[in-house]
Amino acid sequence: MTAVPLPRPSSQPPERNNSGSADVTPVFALKELVARLNREQHKIQDLLSSLGFALRSFSNLNQFLELIPLMASRVTDADGGALVLFRPNGQVKLERLHCQDARWGQELRKGLETATRQTTASLTGLPPGEALARSSQVVAMLDHQLTRHLGGEIQIFGTGILVRNQERGRLYVFSREPDYAWTETRQKLVRLVADQTAVAIENDELTVELKKKERLDRELEIGADIQLRLLPRQCPAIEGIELAALCKTANRVGGDYYDFIPASYGEARKTNPDNSQEKWSVTIGDVMGKGVPAGLIMTMTRGMLRAEVLNGHSPARILQHLNQVMYADLENSNRFVTLFYSEYDPKTRLLSYSNAAHNPPLLWQADSDRIVRLDTMGMLIGLDIETQFQDAQIQLNPGDTIIYYTDGFTDAANQYGHRFDEENLTSAFRWACQHFDDPQQILKYLFDCVQQFIGMGNQNTDDMTLVVMRVKPN
Known about the structure:
single chain; 474 residues; Beta-Lactamase; Phosphatase 2c, domain 1; 2 domains; 12 helices; elongated
């Protein structure tokens, strides 16, 4: 569309008739009309531009909302405007009011507050948030109350403030002029101001949510750092044993747990700082669930288990005591813990163990190339306070290798929904033991097998923990 330049106003004075009065010609009247329309258009553009600038630069929502009734009444040449917001708790509140006539403004405020108060009273008793869900009914009640309390002689136009497709308030504009008409242009201008109000409210809410997320992220980083520090920083030196371990969490805070604990920690520190020839506990566990709650329970489990180990009981008795101590807390949290606890004696190469419903570790026997599952009867920690656990032992020989793992390995799924399962893990473990002598190489190979199974670039949805223990050959 090509813009046609408007004719400049004539510098010549209007012609005068015989009586000396100005003779207003149709051309002059048209020029005055066009000039007035231009001035009105420029005024509206300037006001809306100022409102847009305020929207881009505001740092305080309340300060921005102060402008809304003023702008709405200015761009429509009305006498006043009001902003009413719907609160999540069901309150309908007069947020802001502007009126050129201060005395009439007091009457307007009184009528608006009465209307909003009666609308709020009709919503009393609704559950939090349901009032917003019934916004169409709220709007109908509010409009009815406004018409009733402000009188029929006032010209009223109201439009909704939509935030994420939900009406969160109303913007009203009033005029006392009898000949005032709500033309289509004026209605569009009010809706435009209402839309900018909705954008400001949504931006403010997004900013609040972002700050909450940033605060939560910082807390998660602290939690992840604490959890990382609670896991063994390195594998201990145990006579005749080589170890490798790694925990990969699906989230920043996970529920997997593994630990190496000197079984005779107190006595060993007193008599011989080098406790590599003493018994060592090797344990692995998994808290049902993920994230911060699972991480907190894992931390609690670690502390209680380390305290229990000092009592010098058998593996089954240690699990039984741990279950009795943790039962009340786990029952309240509706979470449970799987745990495999073992003790290795370097002098006899005897491994004693007990299982609380954890994935049984796999033992590769070097002499026979057999895979043995190390398992005993026992229920989850925290499921039944009367649960009984069983002790078992197995003699290890030079070259034997054990992997302790969590269900993140066997439950890892590919794009077709197939699980890696224990059969694939057993096959990969046997191949690794046949071709690698270093536990670190075995660990890396098994992690690579799972990653290749689920797809390169994909992340497993569960925590994955693996401990490899290999008896050194003679």
